[in-house]
Amino acid sequence: xxxxxxxxxxxxxxxxxxxxxxxxxxxxxxxxxxxxxxxxxxxxxxxxxxxxxxxxxxxxxxxxxxxxxxxxxxxxxxxxxxxxxxxxxxxxxxxxxxxxxxxxxxxxxxxxxxxxxxxxxxxxxxxxxxxxxxxxxxxxxxxxxxxxxxxxxxxxxxxxxxxxxxxxxxxxxxxxxxxxxxxxxxxxxxxxxxxxxxxxxxxxxxxxxxxxxxxxxxxxxxxxxxxxxxxxxxxxxxxxxxxxxxxxxxxxxxxxxxxxxxxxxxxxxxxxxxxx
Length: 276
Description:
Blueprint: H1 2-6, H2 9-16, H3 21-34, H4 42-51, H5 56-68, H6 71-79, H7 83-106, H8 123-127, H9 139-171, H10 177-183, H11 189-200, H12 210-219, H13 224-236, H14 239-245, H15 251-275
């Protein structure tokens, strides 16, 4: 909320990120990589970006990149002795998430973006409009406005947040390690990638716990490529995130988001395996 007041919509949309879909999506993807967020933590940031006038393409690229191209998998690959594969994971992830933002925007899925609520009717007073540059009111009034806006935003999100927390608490870091380990000898490698993505999607894992989870599976002989696919899918989206996203996205866009995460997980796993 403070950033929304400090920078006008005009400066944010035209000066901060520029005007090119590809460039803005890439910048947003880099920002996503640098923010160590789990899938749920990206939602408040996404809401702030959209309210500040950031375009749909970079906003979607950030939403995907922040959890998908995560430091947990990179550190895991580095510790496991595959630093080159880790760097390729980051580079390919940036390309994939940037392209996802542009393609989802250009195929018209932005029309399924729900109108985000304006916090405390005074938004226009401090934030301004796309055609009018607002003035910075000073820290004291800005802090007061940010506090009131945050409280109103929390009121609107509270029911969804409670549901998300209950779901997240029930499945947090619940990794079916035995099931995954047993699949190695029973399933052909191409099908193993797909199964790992499908198993990972409904789970809820933050980036840091993937390191011990991944190391344990590597010790049991689980192949690196499918492991990366599983971890990216598990970190990239989750039921709690979907609950929160439904406040801002209509169902077709939520489904596209899940599909993008799944495709990214498959490609990143495959590319990482090739880089070993």
